[in-house]
Amino acid sequence: VWEKDSDRELFDYQSNASFKINFIFDERQKQTIEANQSEMNIEVSRSMYDKVLKEYNQLVASYQTRLNNYNYLVDEFEKRLEIYNSKVAVINARGGAVPKEHQELEAERQYLEDRKKILDSMGAELKNLVPRVNSLGDQVNYLAQQLNIGVDVHNQRFGEAREFDQGEYNGNEINIYQFEGMGDLRLVLAHELGHALGIEHVENPKSIMYYLMDKQDIKNPVLSNEDKVAFSERCSLSYLLNFFR
């Protein structure tokens, strides 16, 4: 990173050099492993929650569609039953039905009876579906609660921006204590090698030499303007002349 942006050869790898870069496992790396495991657990919980929520939403939508259809059919049935009862009342009031009317009324009565059986069956199915809907709703609420708890615990333990204590430059060597992956390691090394060049912390949160590891581009770390200014001031000819006086 430093050589690319400065267009200078600043570091030379030698296997027998006295300056070493050491990888040391301690509580910081243990915490990183625990944080990664926590993130994996959260993703498992989120996946399970999303799956059950999708199933719940589909079931609720299906239930609502069937309920709307049932209510529509019940309304139609009640209107038709009301018309049938009105006809029967009129015919009874005048002393009875002629054979044709009796035949029509009997056909309508049979239709309404059959229709009621169908509606009763539909109503029973809907009633039996309610516990399943409620059970899935309870599962969704429980999984959401567990997911929120997991996220809160993770954020409390691992969510804060980390100071650059994953590595340390002590004047003779660099010790690396903590990194999550190659991008993380690249950024930590760039930061500590900056210290090895004599560069102090700068103010821009996106800078490699910022004291917190939070806003930098881990996948593609580059020097910020503040990094470049700090490098130029530290490695300028006037500084070197003053240093060697």
Task: Produce a short descriptive summary.
Pfam families: Peptidase_M10 (PF00413). This protein is mainly alpha-helical.
Descriptive terms for the model:
245 residues, Helix Hairpins, 67% helix
List the helices and strands and how they pair.
Layout: H1 2-6, E1 20-23, H2 27-93, H3 99-158, E2 162-163, E3 167-169, E4 173-176, H4 182-196, E5 212-213, H5 225-234, H6 237-243
Parallel strand pairs: 1-4
Antiparallel strand pairs: 2-5, 3-4
What does the model show?
There is one protein chain. The chain has 6 helices and 5 strands. With 245 residues, it is mostly helical. It has 2 domains: 33-158, Helix Hairpins (Orthogonal Bundle), CATH 1.10.287; 164-243, no CATH class. The strands form 2 sheets. The protein has a 3-stranded mixed beta sheet, covered by helices on one side. Strands 2-5 form a two-stranded antiparallel ribbon. β3 and β4 form a beta hairpin. α2 (27-93) packs antiparallel against α3 (99-158). The longest helix is centred in the first third of the chain and has 67 residues, at 27-93. The two termini are 30 Å apart. One of its GO terms (cellular component) is extracellular matrix.
